[in-house]
Amino acid sequence: MTRFNAWNVFKNGFTGQKNWDRQWRDPEPKKEYNIIIVGGGLHGLATAYYLAKNHNKKNIAVLEKGWIGGGNAGRNTTIVRSNYMMPGNHEFYEHSLKLWENLSHDLNYNVMFSQRAHVSLFHSPSARDGAARRYNIMRLHGTDGELWDLDTLKKNIPHLNYNNARFPILGAAVQKRAGNARHDSTVWGFARAADSLGVDILQNCEVTGVKRSQNNIESIETSRGTMKAKKVGFAVAGHTSLLWQMAGLGNLPIESHKLQAFVTEAIKPLLDQVVVYGVGGAHFYISQSDKGSMVFGGDLDWYKSYAQRGNLPMVQDSAEAAMAIMPCLGRIRLLRHWAGVMDMSMDGSFFICKTPLSNLYLNAGWNYGGFKASPASGWYFADLIANEQPHKNVQNHNLERFEQGINIDERGAGPDPKLHG
Amino acid sequence: MIRIKCPYCGERDHSEFTYGGDASVEYPVLDASVSEWTKAIFFRENIRGIQKETWHHTNGCRLWLEVERSTITHEIKSVKACHPQIDKITKNKS
């Protein structure tokens, strides 16, 4: 693989930039691999990359039923932040943010990570107290966070609706190191970097069966043939339950719900930050892409579904939230909206853990937050697969936590997956 | 928009309803083991296909309904009131 650098751009300039290598190979599946990761999204590819890079593992395959970037990697609102409070979560997401800060250099691929600040508005004194508590906990753990009063907020984002009588804006909780990144670049970057370390990325390779002996997986049956594997990792986002049942393992503390995202026509620079608005039943987050489109999202569609398309009431809800907080968007036209299928877990936190099978490892339950988590998810999942021992930051992110009563419920919403927004 | 045929109010938009969840979950007896309760409360089959689920007609008659719906196409196969005796009353009404 040719590295992207100034010299190579210059050299290829002599031949019209036409002689670059493929970003990643299209290998034929082998009969046997040391490690098979099912799911060629951000998490699966990041896992394969860190297995090869951090743990020097060889003979790894990533199986993807569609194409790289065609699943939830291409269906998110690209927000990266680490404003988490619960033990385990804040260490995990802070590690993820630190990986993001150097990801473009690490992958030799511009993921266009932009630390433009994540501004979470509050509208009542009690919400301010809640934000102060959360952001103080973050600061005590070494994550940046600050509270902006109304004047600071008005100076930074002058065009929010400051005249709302029902829910007046009082200020905002801000994480300045947060921001967003380019989702396609990230998944392509991980694919290219993993491939250059020898990982086989097998596209159009859908898992159709899992053959197991008593206590472990012997081989994976796919649309491109059967492959033996010494170790198997599942990282398939919304469809984890199906794969889990294919392996004969029963039920999971997960429901599949769909979450919509929206993108408008491109306009001149309007919004420099990621703005989050959540009050009185509304839930809304918006940023502007480098192309100029406004990218935003809201709540889940509120009922369980595997359909990758959204419903209209949620389009209306999101449009109402947009008008409530940024009335200047009133005449903008929506270009596209789509939905991704999410693993909504029973406490709103993820799983990176061992399973009842000795050579199977699980990476699932990312709720609303899979995109920002992907580097650390790959990092810790690779660590688990290589060392067969969970890192202390993810030691409670397992399937047993519910029975032990140590749920990691950031929002305190209880065992109802759709409420963990 | 999904249209749900409420046995009391007739066919309405799903935005009038609140989604309850998996209706196939059966709770164990009160003094069952922690592991049985954990399974009932936290673990789900997460069906890809026709599933039994509850909906509350929040902005209507406020009945709890049991609906069979496809989680792939959103097509509804059947709707009935959760409580069998309420079903009797609604039948008398119509």
From the structure above, extract its key features.
heterodimer; A: 421 residues; alpha/beta; eight-stranded mixed beta sheet; 18 strands; globular; B: 94 residues; alpha+beta; four-stranded antiparallel beta sheet; two-stranded antiparallel sheet
Strand content of chain B: 35-45%
Find the biggest chain interface: A-B, 27 and 26 residues
Shape of chain B: globular
Run of helices and strands of chain A: HEHEEHHEHEHEEHEEEEHEEEEHEEEHH
Helix and strand content put the structural class of chain A at: alpha/beta
Radius of gyration of chain B: 15 Å
Largest beta-sheet details of chain A: 8 strands, mixed
Count of helical stretches of chain A = 11
Mean pLDDT of chain A: 96
Helix content of chain A: 25-40%
Q: Give the N-to-C terminal Cα separation of chain A.
A: 41 Å
Q: What is the beta-strand fraction of chain A?
A: 25-35%
Largest beta sheet: strand ordering of chain B: 3-4-5-6
Head-to-tail CA distance between termini of chain B: 26 Å
Radius of gyration of chain A: 22 Å
Measured as a percent range, the helix fraction of chain B is 10-25%
Number of strands of chain B: 6
Using the alpha-carbon principal axes, give the shape of chain A.
globular
Mean pLDDT of chain B: 92
Extract low-pLDDT stretches of chain B: none
Structure description:
The complex is a heterodimer of chains A (421) and B (94). In chain A, strand 17 and strand 18 form a beta hairpin. Chain A starts with 5 loop residues before the first helix and ends in a 17-residue tail after the last helix. The radius of gyration of chain A is 22 Å and the shape is globular. Helices cover 29% and strands 26% of the residues of chain A. Chain A has 421 residues and is of the alpha/beta class. In chain A, helix 2 runs parallel beside helix 7 and helix 2 crosses helix 10. Chain A has helices at 6-13, 42-55, 89-101, 103-107, 125-140, 150-156, 183-196, 240-246, 312-325, 370-387, 401-404; strands spanning 32-38, 60-63, 79-80, 118-122, 146-149, 171-175, 179-180, 200-202, 207-212, 217-222, 225-234, 254-266, 274-277, 284-288, 293-304, 334-345, 351-354, 360-364. In chain A, strands 1, 2, 8, 9, 10, 11, 17 and 18 form an eight-stranded mixed beta sheet that branches. In chain A, strands 5-6-4-13-14-15-12-16 form an eight-stranded mixed beta sheet, with helices on both faces. Chain B is α+β, with helices and mostly antiparallel strands. In chain B, strands 3-4-5-6 form a four-stranded antiparallel beta sheet. In chain B, strands 1-2 form a two-stranded antiparallel sheet. Classes of the chains: A alpha/beta (421), B alpha+beta (94).
